Amino acid sequence: RLASAGVLFPADRRGEIKGGQLSFKLKEADLAVLRRALALLTKIHFAGGAEEAYPALLKGETLHAGMSHGEIDAYFERAIREPDDVVLSSSHPHGGNAINADPAKGVVDLDQRVHGTANVLVCDASVMPSCIRVNAQLTTMAMADRVTYGRRVFG
Questions:
Q1: What is the reported pTM?
Q2: pLDDT tens, 78-87?
Q3: Which of 57, 63, 93, 117 is exposed most, by the fewest CB atoms within 10 A?
């Protein structure tokens, strides 16, 4: 009786830490993608029989079945004017401990060991140099398997 969907889009390395706070800036092109994608998701839900839709917007409204496609598009055009209008989240963070042979460009080496250590491996999606733009579960499991299977991890 309830369904949920989300929009994935690449936002490679657009954020930075300033004074201990994450600063993340979206471009107008990103907002246009979000508007179109959220409108399409709403239309899909209504086509599938949904009676209401609850967009993940800061000032969200309840949208109702029976709205025309034009009305849905116009709603998202009005509702998303700046990045803070959209509730953004990530369930697959990538790149926080980027893999790179050069310690100046990545946290872990090509064997996924933290540079300058012998016994610290990082085996999650944070080692990916950037967002791979798809669900990362299988890739992450393959990378963890590659780095740990059949080798002595410590010693």
A1: 0.58
A2: 999 988 888 7
A3: 117
